Write the structure tokens for this entry.
Amino acid sequence: MKARVFVTLKSGVLDPQGAAIGAALGGMGFDGVNSVRQGKVFEIDMTDTDRPEAEARLDAMCKRLLANTVIEDYSIDLS
Amino acid sequence: MKARVFVTLKSGVLDPQGAAIGAALGGMGFDGVNSVRQGKVFEIDMTDTDRPEAEARLDAMCKRLLANTVIEDYSIDLS
């Protein structure tokens, strides 16, 4: 079973990296970019076959390792 | 118009960061994780209202700045 986990900064948290990318895009002539925020994506290949169990395990992985839930949000996309 | 751009390493390219995360998950007791690969996600808020035009602009952004197409693949998700 393959999963994608997205980890992004919470909306109130400053993202200087994203701001730098937005400024760089503007400098390269790409107008009309209001904001850019950068996050991480993890592509995880698991042996689990049970969907709810896989979701629960991924949720635990996010809370314990993949995301810093003080400043980051995460979402799980199971395929 | 909001877009998500995913940038991931091509399948043949070594991903030591992903491998380290996979090993850490194993060490924390999460069995059955075959592989982990880490990538980047960019959340871009644009003023464009025309979908094909926005896609073309995002594609150009990826080729020129967001992705290193020698070692990375990208995909665009427009909402």
Summary: The first helix of chain B runs from residue 16 to 27. The beta strands of chain B are 2-9, 33-46, 72-78.
